[in-house]
Structure formats: C-alpha cells, structure tokens
Amino acid sequence: MSGEDNLLELVEAEEAEDGHDYLLQEQVGFILRKAHQRHVSIFAARIADLTPPQFAALAKLHDVGETSQNQLGTLIAMDAATVKGVIDRLKARGLVKLSRHEVDKRRLLVNLTAEGREAIERLIPLAREITQETLAPLTAKEAATFMKLLAKLA
Length: 154
Known about the structure:
The chain is mainly alpha-helical. It has seven helices and three strands. It has helices at 3-17, 28-46, 52-64, 69-75, 80-92, 114-135, 140-153, and strands at residues 67-68, 96-100, 108-112. A three-stranded antiparallel β-sheet has the order 1-3-2. The two termini are 29 Å apart.
C-alpha cells in the first residue's frame, strides 16, 4: 500500500469520526482559498509588477499568438469585463497591442508587443519556480496527484 493510499485512509477515518460537525477549516472552499492566498503571496514576492491575471493573459498570448479579446478571456477563464480591464492595463504598459479584425470590425484582437514578448519570456522561468514553491510541501507524486485532482474539479 502506498503512502498516498495511507493518507486517503487516514482522511476517510477522520471524516467518519467527525461526520456530524461542520468545521469551516475542513471545507473545500476554505482550504482552496487558503492555498490560493499562499500561492498569490509567493507570486507577488517573485513577480511584483504584474497580477496573476495579467501574467495569465501574457502567457496565453505567448502560447497562442494574436487572438480576440473574448477568446483570450475564455482561454484564461475570465469574464469579458475582467479580461477587458486586464488588457487595458497591459496596453497602458505597452505589453500588448490591440487591433480590429479585418472583416469583423467589432472584433478586437490582442497581441503581444515586442516588450510584452520579452517580459513574458523573462517571467516564465520565475513562474515555474513559483509553481515549485507553491507545491513544495508535497512530494513529487503528491503534487502530480494534486494537480490531476484540481484539474478534475476545474
């Protein structure tokens, strides 16, 4: 039996004992929020000049190239109003440029500027370190399992 199986059995045993009480600190939303706060703190310590949503927009533009503002929002799981604000702030900093679609003039396209491309290429190694630091309390196997389970929830 693996250590992971032992951990799951321990958690299941604790749940059976405490099944009648509602303890906030044991609720998924509370624990996810605390883990998120920890990750954001690590992120801010390493990448102080961008917010995580701004970084996400730059990273996804780096991956896919020019895309519509709405599509970018979908790709990074942001609603239209939020992604517009993120893009506006990145544009003001000279990291992205906006253009109109050649055929559908209502469609706004977003792309990295040379400065934006340079910034994201410099920041990606830091982002990898942030992920490693966030997952540091876990073994490699636990981290892989955790990521699979989170992806399943998402």
